[in-house]
From TrEMBL:
Name this polypeptide is given: Uncharacterized protein
Organism: Taibaiella soli
Assigned keywords, A-Z: Signal
Source organism, top-level taxon: Bacteria
Signal peptide: 1-22
Amino acid sequence: MLFSRKINLLFWLLLFSLPVMAREHGKKSPTEQDMVSEIVSCLRAKDGYAYIKLFPPSDSMASWIVQSADQQSKLYAEMVNQLQNPEIGMHTDSMIDALAKGSFDSVITKGENMGIHWSAIVQVRYELIKMKETRDRVYEKVAPTRFLGFIFFRDMLTRKTYGVSVNDIMQIRGDWYGGQIKGLFLASTTDEYLAALKKKKKKNTDSLKTAAATESADAPTTGPQKIIVERKLYSGMFDNQIPVQLYIRYLKGNCPEVTCIWEAFYKFGDQDDYIKLDVSKNPDGKWVFTENPAQGSMELTLDKDKYTGTWLSSDNQTGYDVKLTEIPATPKKIERMDEVFEKELFSK
């Protein structure tokens, strides 16, 4: 999925808060209503590649920032450098394409598990709310008008209505782009959607507490149990620019070693989406983390508390340097990470 070698962290934080801003071939729409229709069309066709083309390319983003940023700033210099070196934009587009498509595909997969016939969906309604102004002056100059909200559609074969949340539908230079979709629920209104979201969060919390109580009980059990031996949290960068956190659980297995089974996921920047990883260890001691569904993989070497290695795209074998360091995790952080494992990733 990921990463530019030269774009600085400020630009990347902007991109991660605006996942709409990095497409290879941007697609313009005249109004925010048209953007909603485009998103529904992509869902209907289950076409993640059409979805990522709703967003402008990174060279356009760089050009807009150059026109808006302080010419004495580091951000301005970095964007000029990108415009002068097209390969940087190619790396950027490759990363954001994978992130956006992964988010889209997760909605499609969840819908199929819920019994949605995507080819039979029809847009019912939508509700958009103008997003508040941020402190980022460049951000505000580039995309002054932004919306978030909900899109509702009906499966005409089952007559059921569903909703997804959408962030960062935005206007740039008179054209509309975006936005990031997530959180699919059976709901026909915003109130129903928020109630379903609240119910899910409560259910996840209650289930986690129940599981913890069961795990600590001394009563004998039947059937295989997942015994977590150790948990580790790593933080670092891809290509020294993209913030990432990796969480690993070490499980007891049928092997001479204490652990030979692992579970893991990672997330990038301030993205809400967690990406499940299949974990294995090669005979030479290198660790392999493969995204599930497959978008890319990491091959890393562990030296004490540090992972180093590369990430490779499954599509075009684009590579990025990876450097991660183990960091302390508070009990609250561990509880949240375990909740992601049990209720958001491994329950699917």
